[in-house]
Amino acid sequence: MDKSMRSYATNCSASGQCWVTDASINQVEKVCIRAMAGFNMASSGDPVEMMMHGTQCSPIIARNIIIHQDVLDINPTIGTYRIPYMACLPTPLTPHAQNSIASLRDINSMSKPVAIVTGAGSGIGEAVAIHLHNERGYKVVIADMNPTSGERVAASLGPNALFIQTDVSSYKSQAQMFKRAYEWGGNRLDFCHANAGIDDRQNIFEAREREELDEEGLLKKLNTKTLEVNLEAVVQGLWLFKYYVRRSEGPGSGKGKFVATSSAAGLYHMSQCPQYTTSKYGVIGLCRSSGPIFVKEGITVNAICPAFIPTNLCPPEVLKRWPKEHITPLSTVNKAIDAFLADDSLSGQVVELSQDEIYFRKQHDWVNESQKWIGEESDKIWDVGYAEPPKREGY
Asked: Does the keyword Oxidoreductase apply (predicted)?
């Protein structure tokens, strides 16, 4: 909305609601059409961010528009005022205007970046999905095992969110979700947060009397579902993400951002859950090793390592006893996500999240010059060795 349009806003009430004059009906209709179609008016260079406020009128009536700005300069002669919203004239929209709204809604929906967040039915995943949708303008796929919580999150976000029930430990389930997300987003995929995770499903320190043998007298296999969900699903998620980013259409096509949830346990350790710790170390290794390669084609790969965040994963007895001063808020997660979104050069990074701060963590120091050479200078030799997958006998 330009300054000439702003000058139409008059008759400000004490509550801050303003109406436009009859003389500005054509101007108002243009603004209403774009706002009703869901456009962020700031995207066209206007510093005023506008969005639809759909609870005031019927679909064929001009809607109220929320202006998200503390102050708006209406007229230099009367000063600056705080205006929460401006109401369009409550007159029926013309058929042309209604058609324009429908067309613009389609265009706007198709042009939005598309994100997948796994484990988005609660906790970290839910917070990131909401942040991407509300603050970053993404269409978001809520991928989760739990239909009740997943549908709740998607419903709260509206038509630009889609719940897909997904078991990330099943490659087929995750692959079907990626395909559907890509198609729903208009043949594009821009962001993936591989966040779904579980704790250890079986104690590796099992007491002697609880160790079980099978019918052949062999010790039964340890339940390693944790590794399937926390690590293998992340590897497969990156594999799928790369495929669809390369085939994306529209603005920013061919570029994407992949974020995986590791843990502070992946930097230190957690003796109570060795498999969980192992999986989170693995996520860091995946991101550090693949990030510098993928960034060459416009795909960034990074990991977050949250400290203690109260989620459904945490045992109730731990939540009861955990000191509040050692809790990391979900807002810190979104701070890290924003850092990755803001810088296309960040890839292969590991970010530790503790309380209100984020810390970019480097790998361990080299112990000597030989290890430094192996780590930094031997790539050309390894590149030759792995130019083609080595042929092995027996496996």
From this structure: yes
